Amino acid sequence: MYGSRGERDNMKKQLAFLLLIPFVALMVYGLVGTSAWFTATVTTNGSISSGNFDLQVSGGPLDLTKLEPGAGYKQVGEFCLVNAGDYDMKLRVRVDNVTDPGALQDLLKVRLVLKALNTDDHNTYGGLDDIELFSDIPFSTLLDWNDQTRLLFETDGATDPFVPDMKSCYKLYVSLSEEAGNSQLSQDLTFDLLFNATQYINPGW
After folding, report:
1. Is 68 exposed, middle or buried (0-12, 13-18, 19+ CB in 10 A)?
2. Inter-CA distances, 81 with 3, 28, 67, 158, 161, Å
3. DSSP one-letter code for 139
4. pLDDT digits over 74-118, tens only?
5. Which of 92, 203, 205, 87 is nearest to 151 (CA)?
6. How far apart are CA 16 and CA 186, in angstroms?
7. pLDDT band with cut points at 50, 70 and 90 for residue 17
8. Which of 131, 89, 99 is closest to 112 using CA atoms?
9. Cα 172–176–136 angle (5° rounding)?
């Protein structure tokens, strides 16, 4: 009537399993709940952007004729730089595209001075007095980026940043060694003057 003992044991296990299902379902329902709590979600706008990095140059032409050996420094010309960006800068300069059939560059020394602007230009880099940035360096030094050609003004041993909207003007001088001879007569040296700017906080140079 009730089957074998084994069949009765299987029926008991099945019955126990069926009774367990509603209990588990009840526990899951209790954990999940009905999400009936009061909730609210709000948003606010966000934006992240980088700024503008822009160096502008004006002035010139840089032109000097009839340079005389042993006559000291003569002014080649003037130029100005403006930080038209959003970040503090530091600057350096070099020459490029040099054409020099008479080998003048081997006999030239270079001097660069900050030009004093009028008192209305309160943001002039380096103040109002002529300040020498470098002098007596061989023209060949300007062929590569290096520490000698950085356009940096120092105050109390620390370089001043070239801040946004700041303007600086410079006077470039050269001198021709008295060692120049007839092979340098009626010779022309042409070049491009390149300016390089980076963030003031850049430790690379």
Report:
1. exposed
2. 105, 72, 26, 21, 13
3. G
4. 999 988 899 999 999 999 999 999 999 999 999 999 999 888 766
5. 92
6. 113
7. very low
8. 131
9. 55
Q: In this structure, are residues 111 and 134 in contact, taking their beta carbons and an 8 Å threshold? A: yes
pTM: 0.73
Q: Do 160 and 153 meet the contact criterion of CB atoms below 8 Å apart?
A: yes
Is the Cβ–Cβ distance between 53 and 85 less than 8 Å? yes
| pLDDT band at 146; cut points 50, 70, 90 | confident
State which amino acid sits at residue 188.
D
In 3-state terms the chain splits into helix, strand, coil percentages (rounded to 5) of 20, 35, 45
φ, ψ (nearest 5 deg) of residue 119: -70, -10
Tokens 């041993």 found at: 157
Q: Contact, 80 vs 57, CB < 8 A?
A: yes
Question: CA torsion angle for 168, 171, 177, 178 (degrees, to 10)?
Answer: -160
Determine whether 175 is exposed, middle or buried from the number of CB atoms within 10 Å of its CB (0-12, 13-18, 19+).
Answer: buried
SS3 23: helix
Using left for φ > 0, alpha for ψ between -120 and 50, and beta otherwise, residue 127 falls in left
DSSP helix/strand/coil, 59 = strand
